[in-house]
Design brief:
Elements (H helix, E strand, L loop, with lengths): L1 E5 L3 H12 L3 E5 L3 H10 L16 E3 L2 H5 L4 E4 L6 H8 L8 E4 L12 H8 L5 E5 L4 H4 L5 E7 L2 H11 L4 E6 L2 H23 L4 H21 L10 H10 L6 H10 L4 H10 L3 H16 L4 H11 L6 H7 L3
Parallel strand pairs: 1-2, 1-4, 2-3, 4-5, 5-6, 7-8
Antiparallel strand pairs: 6-7
Helix pairs in contact: 4-5, 8-9, 8-10, 8-11, 8-13, 13-14
Length: about 325
């Protein structure tokens, strides 16, 4: 089966490695010709995932029409903020019988739309799925056991995604809760910022465990408020991803939070923010606006927003956790 992966960053490459294990005919797409030339020449993405060598039989192109031609499954694996532009191009060439799997996580800033809503804004299709869960790209390419939630209402889409990705190493657990899965995949990056702050302030693992547990309850409430299934919090996309992102320095969100908690110099933090893709920063603005628009109360988001954008002290997290209900 041909699989097209739109996005040749770390996660796109990691997903392609799973497809390759399943003997798929893989095409990788990147918008920028210069980067495509480098990927073809080096068979590596030196900036995003230098450890991974792209197999010789993986086709790489900057031509989207060429990339998706005769491909039953198209995987979107780019930053959430870039999905709108991509879909404006994709809508003119995608065919009704083709299926889309969204691996991007986040909420669009201007519109507060989740990624699947951005896709549906431009492409009228029921052939849509979302995958999400605790999975660093650097781990996935090592072919170790990893679990992802596969959320879709379409059985044929689920079958194609499973055929492309599921194998002895990658387990997909089916769900029909697309909105809940997207909420979990988006907000965990913001929660990881706060978890990193807790670590940076040298608070013990017991405090972090308390914080993560409290966050689970808050996210469950948010899922319900936005029309999803609150039980999704117990999925690979929910607790699985939250546990991973909130406890590992492989997470860029956790790392930035830790720097803030350590009260590192502002110029050091600013340089990290400017030179590293920290999805939680993008999502923080979106989720903050969304919660206000929907009049949903989630104080931890307000607090993290004030720490990041209003220079409040991360020590306020300690007081927040100690407040009696």
């Amino acid at each position: 089966m041909k699989v097209t992966i739109l996005g040749a960053g770390a996660y796109g490459l990691a997903l392609s490695s799973m497809c390759h294990l399943n003997n798929c005919d893989i095409t990788l797409w990147n918008r920028f010709e210069k980067e495509v030339d480098e990927l073809k020449r080096l068979r590596r993405n030196l900036r995003k995932l230098p450890q991974y060598e792209i197999p010789d039989d993986v086709h790489i192109t900057s031509n989207m029409a060429e990339a998706i031609n005769n491909s039953p499954l198209i995987v979107i694996a780019i930053p959430a903020g870039c999905v709108d532009e991509l879909c404006q191009d994709l809508k003119n060439i995608i065919q009704p019988e083709q299926h889309i799997c969204i691996a991007s996580k986040g909420i669009e800033q201007d519109t507060c739309l989740f990624v699947h809503d951005v896709v549906k804004k431009y492409i009228d299709t029921k052939n849509l799925a979302v995958i999400s869960g605790g999975s660093f790209a650097v781990d996935m390419i090592k072919s170790v056991p990893i679990g992802l939630t596969l959320a879709t209402l379409n059985d044929e889409t689920a079958k194609l995604v499973s055929e492309a990705l599921q194998n002895d190493y990658l387990k997909l657990r089916r769900s029909t809760d697309i909105i809940g899965t997207e909420i979990c995949g988006s907000i965990k990056n913001v929660i990881a910022l706060a978890s990193g702050m807790i670590d940076g302030m040298n608070l013990p693992i017991s405090t972090k465990a308390m914080f993560i547990t409290e966050s689970l309850h808050d996210i469950k409430g948010l899922i319900k408020a936005l029309g999803g299934d609150k039980n999704t919090i117990l999925s690979f996309a929910g607790f699985g991803d939250l546990l991973l992102t909130c406890t590992s320095e492989k997470s860029r969100n956790f790392t930035l939070g830790k720097m803030i908690g350590e009260e590192q110099p502002s110029d050091v933090i600013k340089e990290y923010m400017e030179n590293t893709t920290v999805e939680g920063l993008y999502t923080l603005k979106s989720i903050y606006t969304l919660l206000n628009n929907k009049q949903v109360d989630m104080p931890i988001i307000d607090l993290v927003y004030d720490i990041i954008y209003h220079d409040e002290s991360p020590k306020k997290l300690i007081k927040f956790l100690n407040v009696k209900e």
